[in-house]
């Protein structure tokens, strides 16, 4: 029997204000979110697996230069792009992830290779790049990842001695919004030293296919001017990305808190142990995130093709389609 298919995507959460957005930019964001939804939906409509659908949607978002993933990734302190990505197949409970990969055109594809070809879940840094070479992952030169606004963000972050999560308001107003502060240059940065009110740009997708199988995928460029080998929640299974036989979840926001709250897995745990619906479980997870001081949101889907997209930030780039009406919904603000 064919069940209800569903797909949801995000392009990051944070202080996304209408007042900081131009009409043209908003149109660009919306059309890219629609393109990513179409890419994933085409797979599900043909009866394809949820894993293929989330990978297709995330590849589309990685290729779009305005999101902080793949092509639009932010710069590290050394002017490099180092990217993290993860995906998980809820049907098999298999997952693959990469952290700190450079020059890989689509890190989510590499995460898939980790899942398919290694007995491991997460490969990082040099090793992950060696693996990319071994599996002939498509690489791209530094210029491919170079976007002017990301470069300006880095110059600004260096000048101010800051580690920034994604977009930054003051010096790049045309992009709107994104500041985080941390005492860069010190090796002792407690979680509380980060203030990340405007993160946005990480991308993700969750899907339910015709068999009721679920999958989740998330991809990010991390933080501008990042050092110290910082890794966020995105490539950590259970923190930023998770899928099982109850739900599939992809998170975005201040990663440290999603790690501390084990947020992606938390949605599944609340469904399993408390018998909650997807919507109630996800809402409670975001309430918990708020309690521990975190900001951001998540997208989630269950085996009945229900979707929910809660967040506690000003906005979240997001969209979904479900088999209820096959209508594409794309939203940015609260
Ligand atoms: N969660 C990501 C991180 O902390 C960032 C984001 O979602 O914007 O690396």
Short description:
This protein has 334 residues and is α+β, with helices and mostly antiparallel strands. The protein has helices spanning 23-45, 50-62, 107-117, 125-134, 142-145, 148-160, 255-260, 263-274, 278-291; strands at 6-14, 83-89, 94-101, 122-124, 203-208, 214-220, 241-243, 247-253, 296-302, 307-308, 315-322, 329-333.
Layout: helices, strands, pairs:
Blueprint: E1 6-14, H1 23-45, H2 50-62, E2 83-89, E3 94-101, H3 107-117, E4 122-124, H4 125-134, H5 142-145, H6 148-160, E5 203-208, E6 214-220, E7 241-243, E8 247-253, H7 255-260, H8 263-274, H9 278-291, E9 296-302, E10 307-308, E11 315-322, E12 329-333
Parallel strand pairs: 3-4
Antiparallel strand pairs: 1-5, 1-11, 2-3, 2-6, 5-6, 7-8, 8-9, 9-10, 11-12
Bound molecules: aspartic acid.
Would you give an account of this structure?
The chain has 334 residues and is α+β, with helices and mostly antiparallel strands. It has 9 helices and 12 strands. It has helices at 23-45, 50-62, 107-117, 125-134, 142-145, 148-160, 255-260, 263-274, 278-291; strands at residues 6-14, 83-89, 94-101, 122-124, 203-208, 214-220, 241-243, 247-253, 296-302, 307-308, 315-322, 329-333. The strands form 2 sheets. It has an 8-stranded mixed sheet. Strands 7-8-9-10 form a 4-stranded antiparallel sheet. Strand 3 (94-101), helix 3 and strand 4 (122-124) form a beta-alpha-beta unit. It is globular and about 50 Å long. The termini are far apart. Aspartic acid binds at residues 12, 165-166, 199-202, 220, 222, 232-234, 240, 252-253, 255.
């Amino acid at each position: 029997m064919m069940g209800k298919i569903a797909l949801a995507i995000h392009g990051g959460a944070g202080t996304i204000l209408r007042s900081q957005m131009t009409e043209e930019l908003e149109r660009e964001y919306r059309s890219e979110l629609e393109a990513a939804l179409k890419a994933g939906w085409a797979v599900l409509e043909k009866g394809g697996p949820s894993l293929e659908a989330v990978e297709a949607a995330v590849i589309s978002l990685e290729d779009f230069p305005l999101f902080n993933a793949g092509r639009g990734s932010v710069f590290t302190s050394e002017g490099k792009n180092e990217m993290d990505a993860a995906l998980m197949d809820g049907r098999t409970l298999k997952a693959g992830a990469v952290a700190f990969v450079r020059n890989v055109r689509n890190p989510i594809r590499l995460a898939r290779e980790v899942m398919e070809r290694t007995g491991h879940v997460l490969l990082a840094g040099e090793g992950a790049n060696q693996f990319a070479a071994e599996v002939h992952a498509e690489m791209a030169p530094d210029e491919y990842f170079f976007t002017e606004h990301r470069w300006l963000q880095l110059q600004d972050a260096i000048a101010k001695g800051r580690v920034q999560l994604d977009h930054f308001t003051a010096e790049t107003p045309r992009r709107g919004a994104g500041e985080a502060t941390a005492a860069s240059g010190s090796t002792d940065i407690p979680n509380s030293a980060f203030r990340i009110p405007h993160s946005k740009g990480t991308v993700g997708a969750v899907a339910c296919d015709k068999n009721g199988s679920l999958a989740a995928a998330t991809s990010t460029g991390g933080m501008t001017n990042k050092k110290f080998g910082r890794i966020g929640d995105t490539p950590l299974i259970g923190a930023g990305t998770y899928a099982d036989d109850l739900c599939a979840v992809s998170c975005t926001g201040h990663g440290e808190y999603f790690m501390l709250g084990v947020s992606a897995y938390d949605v599944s745990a609340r469904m399993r142990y408390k018998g909650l619906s997807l919507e109630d479980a996800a809402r409670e997870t975001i309430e918990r995130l708020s309690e521990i001081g975190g900001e951001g949101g998540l997208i989630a889907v269950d085996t009945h093709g229900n979707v929910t997209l809660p967040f506690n930030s000003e906005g979240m780039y997001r969209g979904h389609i479900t088999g209820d009406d096959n209508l594409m919904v794309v939203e940015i603000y609260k």
